[in-house]
User: Fold this.
Amino acid sequence: MKTFKQAFTNFFLCTVLFFFSCSTSKVNEEKSVTDPSIYLADPTIFSANNMYYLYGTVGANANNGFLVYTSPDLKHWRASKEVNNGYALQKGDAYGTKGFWAPQVFAYNKKFYMAYVANENIAIAESDSPLGPFKQLVRDSLSANVKQIDPFVFIDDDGKKYLYHVRLTQGNKIYVAEMTDDFSAIKPETVHECITATEPWENTQNASWPVTEGPTVIKHKDLYYLFYTANDFRNPDYAVGYAVSKNPLGPWKKYGGNPILTKNVLGINGTGHGDIIVNKKKKMFFVFHTHYSNNVVSPRKTAIVEMKFSKDRESEYDKITVLSNTASFLKVQNK
Assistant:
């Protein structure tokens, strides 16, 4: 009987491993051969030189750096191979050895900068081109007494620079701090908490470590709009809301109609953590990621949807409306 049990156990394990191997191979084959979808989590789009540049967290290869894709129209994308085999920032050129997450690219004084996460810290590298290579002369992160992720640098009309970011302190909480003019540090005395999970939609699983993350800030009619995502990224209810303030440091008032972007927009779970891009026709879009499918989280897929400001009779400020019928996944289409 003992020999039979051992044989049956071995057979069962081999069957499971064989099934898993086949399933994994099938997914990889679909992804690499037949599926032109772009697989970037935490995506961001930057516009320069009549071109759009797409960056994000590169899934299983997040320990290598950040890929870049380009498009003339936000529709037809191609993988750039011009620098470092397609990597705008490559490990070894700047701070970090693993966990390259959530990049943001911005321009200042004829230079291009990338704020990003590595080793659960925030760093900022620079380049002469949006394609990269983004590098640091001194490979270091921004000093902080806590782990911090998901950077977004906002430069206000008066020239002041702000770092919106997530601090890992009894949950993922969104903070802001004013930065030095050279982006090398934050001013500790200016650190303010912006957003934490307090609403039911922001913690649908009642997790002991609540999550708000992925901040993006824009200015509209002298008001500041902070987009953020709530819930753990593996949660099907991962969704986007926003808050409004009269000051870049807050306080922030959450929109009463949150969340504005959910899994319903594309019929797939895990909708969130994105960035705003305004196209050449002054239309506003939100680029974001979803789960791979409603059964599998990763690799996460990149999508985009149009948004617009509209009057809100019940509020002193304009509200943001998501045009759900414009939502689509980004694909590599070299035309």
